[in-house]
Amino acid sequence: MVHFQSENGYVPEVITDVVRLWIESVTKSHGFQLGEINYFFCTDEYILQTNRQYLNHDYYTDIITFDYSLNNVISGDLIISLDTVKSNADLLNISYNTELLRVVIHGILHLCGFKDKTKEEEVKMRELEDQALNLYTTFK
Q1: Where are the alpha helices (DSSP H) in 32-95?
Q2: How many structural domains compose the chain?
């Protein structure tokens, strides 16, 4: 089950039941079942506090993924800074909704075991994100 919450009660309009179906489809395409997925949308300051408190990282980020997966059932808490999503969308000259969906699925890909620490892993992650975004267009 996929849940969406936010720091201030605002969940972006693009986040609909279609996104839930898309997340489930991407999960299954990588050989996993969907467990409990909790998205929490927040500000830069909230994600910075979380990054410091739980990961000892002193920087802003677009997403933090806490992985509680067991075997082939993915579960986790995904914290997304809407401020950073907006900044990245502006920087990349793409729509806010496209960047938000990319970040949403980025967390799922992490739960599926994909990494992005090395250059090769980062390239693969971008390919998988692009494939997932292309799949999303078939759900709309």
Answers
A1: 44-55, 82-92
A2: 1
- In angstroms, the CA 13 to CA 123 distance is 29
Evaluate if pTM is beyond 0.85. yes
Rounded-to-integer distance, Cα 51 and Cα 37, Å: 19
What is the pLDDT at residue 6? 96
Instruction: Give residue 67's identity as a one-letter amino acid code.
Output: D
Structural domain harbouring 75: 2-137
CA 31 to chain centre: 18
What pLDDT, on the 0 to 100 scale, is given for residue 139? 84
Residue 105 makes CB contacts below 8 A (sequence gap 6+) with: 22, 23, 26, 129, 132, 133, 136
Helix (H) or strand (E) holding 40: strand 33-42
* CATH at 60: 3.40.390.30
**Residue 93 DSSP one-character state:** T
